[in-house]
Hints:
The protein has 1 helix and 2 strands; from the N terminus they run ββα. It is an alpha+beta fold. It has a domain of 29 residues.
Amino acid sequence: xxxxxxxxxxxxxxxxxxxxxxxxxxxxxxxxxxxxxxxxxxx
Length: 43
């Protein structure tokens, strides 16, 4: 559970790790798409 006590969020680590995972997934997908497009243009 997430509680806000005095302006501090307690117990939100699941959200943090999910956000980090989603960010890395998007960045890795973008990097792969750039690499793939670069390979196609080199031919």
